[in-house]
Every structure is written in structure tokens, then in C-alpha cells.
Specification:
- The protein has helices at residues 53-65, 80-104, 154-160, 167-184, 215-234, 279-296, and strands at residues 3-9, 12-17, 20-22, 28-30, 34-39, 43-51, 111-119, 125-129, 135-137, 144-148, 192-198, 206-210.
- The protein is of the alpha+beta class.
- It has one domain (3-229): Glutamine Phosphoribosylpyrophosphate, subunit 1, domain 1 (4-Layer Sandwich), CATH 3.60.20.10.
- The strands form 3 sheets. It has a 5-stranded antiparallel beta sheet with strand order 10-1-2-11-12, covered by helices on one side. Strands 5-6-7-8-9 form a 5-stranded antiparallel beta sheet, covered by helices on one side.
- Helix 1 (53-65) crosses helix 2, helix 3 (154-160) packs antiparallel against helix 4 and helix 4 packs across helix 5 (215-234).
Length: 297
Amino acid sequence: MTYCVGLCLKDGLVFLSDTRTNAGVDQIGTFRKMSLFQKNHDRFFTLMSAGNLAITQAVKEILQQGQLLGGNNLWNVENTHDAAVVVGDAIKQVYERDHQSLEKAGIDFNCNLIFGGQVKGERPRLFNIYSAGNFIEATPETCYFQIGESKYGKPILDRVLNFDTPLNLATKCALISMDSTLKSNISVGMPLDLLVYEKNALQATKLVTIDESNPYFQMIHERWGEKLREAFNSIAEPSWSGAHKSHAISSPAKKMSPVPINLSPKKVPAKKTVKPINKPVVKRVLATKKVAVKAKA
């Protein structure tokens, strides 16, 4: 599997990806999921990929070769939005070529990309591009995208990030998000590729590959676990007696009544059983009555 996160902030962009691929417990590999495209201080793009590795590698190859898609490629488009259109068209080209054979093999066309960067004269932009080739763009209100195993690293992003977050603080937040994912999901693994793109740089000035020996990531891994335990232990336990009002957990809910409890059913007295009449006895009684009637007559 994969975990990639991209942040679009006031001062630039942050990209972080793992390198583990997983096709089963005995088929784990290491492949880069981050690709960079740079041209003469005129434009700079970053692409991160998740999904079927063969599909995403085919898309990247089309982009790297500079094939013209509708007359455009990454090197001649006028803005980053048009560059995202080119990436979407590359996905569609791979789909047209491969989807029938994939369907016959029972394989889904699975491709999800984070693409972002800057063309000289415009602001940095970030896009989430889907398997169909369509995409959405990050906004100041929704300033990050995740692909792959996103659920474990999302809470820290939601609590900390906003469009005005400084790049260094955002970088720390992205690394904590990755550390949380590594802790909870074995299908995401190191090394990590980290790019911090400063607005208007139009080149990669802060790019690093992080492995287990990286001192900053080691510190984050240790301190984040410690601080989480400290924060957990500092929160009061629930008070069932109501002695501490601020900790009372048995306070009645305002919008719902208490959960109904079904009491044990009342014991119903057993019905008196009527003994069945023995038929031979009935016959003898009737015969006796007949004899008595004859004798009277």
C-alpha cells in the first residue's frame, strides 16, 4: 500500500511519501512514489502516486517522455491547472490501452495521484487526480490531500493545519502524520521522500530521503509517543458518582432519554393439569348405571 500527503500553504507546498509496495505478505518491495519535473527556473512540478504500480509507472513514463496530449505536455502548458489536465490525459491514455486486459484478469484500474507545483508568474497549486483523469484543487479551506492509507494520519492534520501554517511547522505535522501511519499500518514503510517547496523557488531546495537512522524523524517518533501518553494520563478519568461535576459521565443526555432496560418477565403460575379420564373406568361406570336402571325397572 501507500501513504502520501501533500500540503498547499500560503508560503509554499509540502510533499511526503513512503516507498513500500505490497502485493502480498511475501511480495513487499521498495519503489519511489514521488517524481519531480523541473525546467529552467520556469516551472516546477511534483507528482506522488498510489494504486496499481504498473499503471502509475506507465503514467509517469508518458509525462517524463513529454508526449503531447492534445498538443500539450508538462513543459509547454501555461499554468499548473493545465499541467494537471495533461496528467489526467496521461491516465486516460493508459486506461484506453490497458483497461480491457486488466478487466479480463480481474484487476481494477486503480490510480490516484497528488500533483502540484508552480509555473512562473502564478501561485503554487495542488491537485488530487483520480483514476478517471478528473481532479479537484486544494483551497485555503481544504489545504491538503492524502492518498493511500489516509485514516491514521488524518487526525493530526485536521487539528493542526491551516492555510497560514508556516512551512516548518507544516513539515513537522506531515512527519507526525506519517509516523502515526507507520505505527498502525504495516503496508506503509520507510524510506520516506520529503520535499518542502518554497513559493517562487521554481526548484527543489529542500529535498531529503528519510530512513530509520534520520535523527529528526527518530526524535519525532519517540517524543510523539511520549507526549501522547502524557496527554492521555493527564486527562481525568470519568466520575460515575458525580462527585466531580466537570468529570461526571452519568449526567443525563439532553436530547435523548435513558437507554430502556427490559426487566425480567414475571413468572406466570403454572396451569393445573387435569388428569385424563381412564376410558375403561368410564365404560365400567356406564355399564353399572345401565344394570342399575334395568334392576329398577
